[in-house]
Amino acid sequence: MKRSDALVAGVGSFRATLCEYLSSGQLLEVVYRDSAGQVCVVHDVIRDIFSRAGQDFIFLGRGTMLPFERILTIDGQQIHGISD
Q1: What pLDDT, in 10s, does the model give residues 15-33?
Q2: How far apart are CA 8 and CA 59, in angstroms?
């Protein structure tokens, strides 16, 4: 199942794609920048997607909480335009 179009189309489509990953329990490769600016790579499942204080987050299976704007790629697909 190819989801690259949804990952670059904006926050609504990005959220819909994340919901698909959440419901499938599929193992993903997530590349993101941590709070120190270091690039991190994890292989995990999405446990939850939520908003808090006007910011969108994903919560990974091992307890990592990531704001959408820190996510660089998911399963090798570069994230663009999620703040639209």
Answers
A1: 788 888 899 989 999 999 9
A2: 20
